[in-house]
Amino acid sequence: MMKKRTMILASVLLLCTLTACTGKQESTESTTISESQQSYTLQDGEDITITSAGTYEFTGEAKNVTITIKADETDEVELVLDSVSIVNDEAPAVYVASADKVSITTTDTQNSLQVSEENDQLDAAIYSEDDLELNGDGTLTITSASHGISVKDSLNITGGSINITASKDGLHAEDNDDDTVGSVSVSGGAVNITAEDDGIHATTTVEIDGGTVDLTAAECVEGTYIKINGGDITINASDDGINASQKSSAYTPTVEINDGSLKITMGAGDTDGIDSNGNIYVNGGTIDITGQSTFDYDGEAKVTGGTIIENGTETNTITNQSFGGPDGAQNGGEGRFPNGDGNGGPGGMRPEEPKAN
């Protein structure tokens, strides 16, 4: 009798632990699917748990449902969203507990994920403990009372149309236990974010290589090393447009712009278009900034190419609004770069930044 009571108590404790982790009331049903069951229609109150590698397609409208990936650390899992709509009270619509990598692909359809209440633990509509990629041909609209998408490792957007409205950050990449991880990259698709805090927030690097990025937030892009290699980027910020600060011990705060089109509009007050607690390097692209303070940096600034427009006037220098940093420079000479070298490359170009371990 004592053994039976002990087993019942253990089961209750396990149930309470799982409920606390997801921050939701236990669903009426929970279904585990494996690679042999790859297509599923969502139902109200029925959670889905994926335990192995494979491609899993979902369709349908449902309330209070979480798709959980709890696979092996070597497994790659792809979720295909085909006309999916999930509306939850506070639990994430998608939770990646474990996997090697998870991809979320939209078919050429409209898909939406909504979380209406804040969750202190899994604080996003999509929450991932591991690498996450978003791609596809369709539209994914996220509305969240917390972050839109939050990852502990890397978040990569390579395609699709991603629309996010968030009460915290739109895209958030951070591991509180490791400041050498937590990155965001955009190489394709269309990303449209309205956020009350940061549009894009990463501990280590933010890299934009292509696509269309439209951000409206307090600070629109925040990370330690921010690199723009391409894309069409529009920023509307009530605070700083782009802010490189020391969030990671693996990088020197730097904003590097090599190509692309960047248009920044700031709100009134003590705001900066591009603010770096370290360096600013402009090697190409077009930068159009409207606001009281266009640039602010504490390290060095170099211009080797590209077009800079400050409040409607084209210039070939970076004017520092900070009293603590050196004057802006064109084709600057020697400088201290993140990899410890004392010299820039040919033509003032800076060498590649170090890779985090």
From TrEMBL:
Residue spans of biased composition, Low complexity class: 309-320
Annotated organism of origin: Agathobacter ruminis
Comp. bias intervals (Gly residues): 325-348
Signal peptide bounds: 1-22
Keyword entries, A-Z: Signal
Superkingdom per UniProt: Bacteria
Name assigned to this protein: Dockerin type 1
InterPro entries assigned to the protein according to its UniProt record, in alphabetical order: Cthe_2159
Region (Disordered): 309-357
Pfam families: Cthe_2159 (PF14262)
